[in-house]
Design brief:
The structure is a single chain. By secondary structure, this protein is an all-alpha fold. Helix content is 71%, strand content 1%. The protein has 2 domains: 3-13 and 25-353, ABC transporter involved in vitamin B12 uptake, BtuC, CATH 1.10.3470; 377-694, Orthogonal Bundle (ABC transporter involved in vitamin B12 uptake, BtuC). The chain has helices spanning 25-48, 56-64, 69-104, 116-130, 136-158, 165-188, 196-199, 210-228, 230-236, 240-245, 250-272, 278-287, 299-325, 327-330, 335-353, 376-396, 404-411, 417-451, 463-477, 483-505, 512-537, 542-550, 562-577, 579-585, 590-594, 599-621, 627-639, 643-667, 676-694; strands spanning 3-7, 10-13.
């Protein structure tokens, strides 16, 4: 189960057994029987779990027709629909993931990593908020259209490099953007999107068999049609040219199979929402046995067995959640949270097995000439003025509007009670946005320079996620904890995540694909962990979850800003003083040693500073993505790659971007407030995709 280079620039999955190798029917049958037995055992446990006291005797009574009416009602109306939903979802996603991996020849392809699930969910959310009739068939059509559009966009961005990590990066970032838009729509129209917020993480809870009566037969038909293409999929694993020479219409087959896989994903989303990573984990488990079981690589065996593995994983995840959390609390925990944590572990494992390479091997992707600004001091002055203008507008504009004279009177201490009350509340939010923007931008510049990775971002690399886990652990365990305690826990979480990601990536010289894939896995795991922590301790406090997962300056006071102020005062001078070392590290490994700079020590200092800056920002406003990606790139485009200019320019740009996002979030749909991270995602997602497109191999 490896990715190997068969053509220049393309990493492909190749079967360890030749396509024409004989099939060991009895061994394949043993694997299938083992999966069926595992499913039966887990299903038996699954049915007797729940809030009602219905155990094995009651289940046996229902099966034999001798049970009580109440027990029968609980089993039939509640638990069997949930079990059936797990079967439909697992089978659909397992089969969809298997064929997507085969078409892309990429072990990391799945409905999640190709943004199919998030695209389907976004389409359903749009339909719910704009008033499309909420009927099952309508949801299915919307989910299919959104998922197919997302898949086509991802494949288009990847170009011909389906086998590389580029495909996964494009899908992951598009997925983040789609989920941000979905969250924004839910916040804007909470009545029209009732139930979608809980459904967003994926849940097997059902109200009877209504949805399943339509989805289950459709799933059976689509899986059957997919199996008709098994022979062609076998030949596609040999390569496009070889498959054509054997009479396979390659493009038509690929398009047909992708459409079938997207339709299966749409079925899953319609039934249970976007349950994560089943399409990645289930086929991976089956492919582990291809070296031991002859014929398991053939799609007539691989496809159905991946579906059965998907069923086993979904049901096991649901059973585990209810066993660990308890029946009452487990009602609030989406099944998709458990599968996401499992998928994050698998992503990290795959990252360590991939061949280390960079997305841009033709040259240093950070080697930007800039626009030739001859007077950087003038540019910095213009940015300072722009930041002051944005901050001033933030003080004046909101659910209550003021004039410039009101602001001047407030600054002079002559403001009226209403003016003082409103501006006293707005000022700490503006300061928080400015300082957090500075911290995240400088952190991104440091990480990009040290790792020589143009796609590095504290959020995408999991550092922000680790900080949020640390902070939420303290917030949920000790609700009255001081901000210093929260900041300390945030720092500990960020350092742990950074040690994991950067430590593992350092073995390959911070190769772009491995570093980002490790970070994506850690980020997914952190998000799921935060959700579990909040639901387990305070399931009804949704505002707390949004604070840490969406990023917000709401309710910030000056005393909350102390950790961030201290971090900026101590670490920004260190970052600026080390700008020459950062210039050298961003070139290669040998140049720093030639001029007497210790790469290891400098890397530790700069990565540590970037991690602490991110942790401080997260402890104050939560997770805000893409500021650490966009600001350093924009700075290099303006002043070149010299970090003595990049760092201050990036800091100002980060402050402007986050302050402007916070201003728009507070005013565009006032009195409803959108978190700043939703708007930074709207800016950062297309920019990241542009960078990904620009770094394509030639």
């Amino acid at each position: 189960m490896t990715l190997t280079a068969e053509r220049p620039g393309v990493e492909e999955h190749t079967s360890p057994t030749p396509v024409g190798a004989p099939t060991s029917v009895w061994r394949v049958a043993v694997v299938a029987l083992g999966l069926l037995i595992a499913i039966a055992v887990v299903a038996a446990v699954h049915v007797v779990q729940g809030t009602a006291d219905v155990g094995v005797p009651e289940l046996w009574g229902w099966l034999t027709g001798t049970g009580s009416g109440q027990a029968t009602a609980v089993v039939v109306e509640s638990r069997l629909p949930r079990l059936a939903a797990g079967v439909v979802v697992g089978l659909s996603l397992g089969v969809a993931g298997a064929v997507m991996q085969s078409v892309a020849r990429n072990m990391l392809a799945s409905p999640d990593t190709l943004a199919v699930n998030s695209g389907a969910f976004l389409a359903v959310t749009v339909g719910a908020t704009v008033g499309v009739p909420s009927v099952i068939a309508g949801d299915l059509v919307l989910a299919f259209g959104g998922g197919l559009l997302a898949a086509l966009v991802v494949f288009a961005l990847a170009g011909t490099e389906y086998g590389t990590v580029r495909l996964v990066l494009a899908g992951t970032v598009i997925s983040l953007g789609f989920m941000a838009i979905s969250t924004m729509l839910i916040i804007l129209d909470p009545q029209g999107a009732i139930g979608l917020q809980a459904w967003q993480a994926g849940t097997l809870s059902q109200n009877g068999f209504g949805t399943l009566r339509l989805m289950a037969p459709l799933m059976v038909v689509v899986v059957s049609v997919t199996l008709l293409h098994a022979r062609r999929l076998d030949l596609l694993t040999l390569g496009d040219d070889e498959a054509r020479s054997l009479g396979v219409p390659v493009r038509r087959t690929q398009l047909t199979v992708i459409v079938l896989a997207v339709l299966l994903s749409a079925v899953s989303v319609t039934v249970a929402g976007p349950i994560g990573f089943i399409g990645l984990v289930a086929p991976a488990l089956v492919r582990l046995g291809t070296s031991r079981v002859k014929g398991l690589h053939r799609h007539r065996a691989l496809v159905p067995l991946s579906g059965l593995a998907g069923v086993a994983v979904v049901l096991l995840a649901d059973v585990t959640v209810r066993a660990v959390m308890g029946s009452q609390r487990a009602v609030q925990v989406p099944t998709g949270v458990a599968t996401t944590i499992l998928g994050a572990v698998v992503l990290v494992g795959f990252a360590m097995r991939l061949r280390a390479s960079r997305l841009d091997e033709a040259g240093n992707a950070l080697d930007v000439r800039g626009l030739g600004v001859r007077r950087p001091g003038l540019l910095i002055g213009v940015l300072v003025v722009l930041l002051v203008v944005v901050a001033g507008a933030s003080m004046l504009v909101g659910d209550r509007m003021f004039l410039v004279g009101d602001l001047l009177n407030w600054l002079a201490g002559r403001g009226g009670p209403i003016t003082s009350s409103v501006m006293d509340a707005r000022a700490p939010r503006i300061v928080a946005a400015v300082l957090a923007g500075v911290a995240l931008a400088v952190s991104g510049a440091l990480i990009q320079g040290v790792t020589r990775n143009p796609l590095a971002d504290p959020t995408l690399l999991g550092v922000s996620g680790g900080a949020s886990v640390g902070a939420v652990v303290v917030v949920t365990a000790v609700p009255a904890a001081s901000f210093w305690a929260i900041s300390g826990a945030s720092v500990a979480g960020a350092l742990l995540a950074a040690t994991l990601v950067f430590g593992l990536a350092a073995r390959s010289g911070f190769a772009t694909d491995r570093l980002v894939l490790l970070g994506v896995g850690v980020a997914y795991g952190a998000t799921a962990t935060v959700t579990v922590l909040i639901v387990a301790t305070d399931p009804f406090n949704a505002a707390k979850a949004l604070t840490w997962l969406s990023g917000s300056t709401y309710g910030r006071a000056y005393e909350h800003l102390t950790p961030l102020v201290v971090a900026c005062v101590l670490l920004l001078p260190i970052a600026f003083a080390a700008s020459r070392r950062l210039d050298l590290l961003s070139v290669d490994e040998d140049t720093p040693r030639v001029v007497g700079v210790d790469p290891a020590r400098s890397r530790l200092l700069l990565l540590g500073s970037g991690t602490l800056l991110t942790a401080a920002a997260v402890s104050v406003i939560g997770v805000v993505g893409f500021v650490g990606l966009v600001a350093p790139h924009a700075a290099r485009a303006l002043v070149g790659r010299r970090h003595r200019l990049v760092i201050p320019v990036a800091a100002l740009l980060g402050a402007i971007v986050l302050s402007l996002s916070d201003l728009l979030g507070r005013t565009v749909v006032a009195p409803t407030q959108l978190s700043a991270s939703l708007l930074t995602a709207a800016i950062g997602t297309p920019y990241f995709l542009y960078l990904l497109h620009r770094s394509r191999r030639t």
